[in-house]
Amino acid sequence: MDKQKNRMILCLLMAAISRTVESGEWVASVISNLDALVSSCVVVPCTFTHPEGQTFSKSQIRAIWHRFEKWNEMIYNVDNTQVLDSFRERTKLVGNLDKNNCSLEITGVRDHDTGPFCFRIELVKEAETTDKFSFVKSCVEFKMQYIPPIPEIISSRKPIQGKPFTVTCSVFHNCPSFVPQLKWNRKISPEGIIETHINIGSGRWRMESILTFIPQEQDDHTELNCTAVFHGGMTSSHVLPIHIIRTKSYNYIIIPVAVAAGTTVLFGLLCIVVVKKYKNRIAELQRRDGSMWNRLSRMSRRFRSDNPGPPAQRQVTFQKSSLL
Ligand SMILES: *[C@@H]1O[C@H](CO)[C@@H](O)[C@H](O)[C@H]1NC(C)=O
After folding, report:
1. pTM of the entire structure?
2. How far apart are CA 193 and CA 213, in angstroms?
3. Rounded CA gap, 112 and 153, in Å?
4. Strand partners, 76
5. Atom 3, ligand 1: which residue's CA is nearest?
6. Among 15, 61, 222, 262, which one has the highest count of C-beta atoms within 10 angstroms of its own C-beta?
7. Which residue owns the Cα nearest ligand 1 atom 2?
8. What pLDDT is recorded for position 316?
């Protein structure tokens, strides 16, 4: 019974001690997991708070990043000579310590840079290191990416001939200090492209390129290509096949109608000319025909000499020949 009591008291005591250590002390907040693209770069978001009432200037704080549980294996120290050879010139504190920002940039990421790496603060007083704080729970571990993320192409609708068409190409990355470039396989005026950089939290970012152009007939059955060029030279791309929706043209009605109308007019004119020409000819023929008729009627009269025929007929014949 006594033993149990003692153990309980001990537990409470330990809890109380750890509590005082936690509160009012230095606290760093580091992203615990982050993807890192080999050959490229990565920025680890990190912020810290110091005990209330105490203020420190940048010169009093020494920020250090080191390997987990290996305080001497530093990957970042303002004093370059203390940094591991394999990390020298590759790490940089991009955060502003005066603003409690301890963000770390690593460039030329190598596949063995997995970590974990932890943040640590040393307080410097009169060139002497007085206190050291290592935030053992504040470490980052990298998951290596050997293939760069592939950009995504999104458009709200299908391209329509002659109408502005907008497509968005976006790619995720974890290196805001050297953002990937997004390139299109079309020659477009810079005003046709809008770029945005979005912080999606937890050290992740999205680079976007919004392209607007007016598709023409010749763009049909072509490809729109968006290539992401990452810091360090790795590239990845996405291809969007373009199928243009043709705008309705009334040419297929207008042209035949115009041709038909033109032909009709021409044909009409031709008819008039032909009719005029042949009218004369017909008149001539009819004149001849008339004389023949006269002859025939005269013959028939002679033939039927006993019957001289009605005078009306003779009159008609006369009229006809006079008319023509
Ligand atoms: C810390 O600094 C980095 C690099 O300059 C910046 O991207 C980030 O937004 C800063 N974080 C805060 C919380 O201000």
Report:
1. 0.67
2. 9
3. 32
4. 65
5. 95
6. 61
7. 95
8. 45
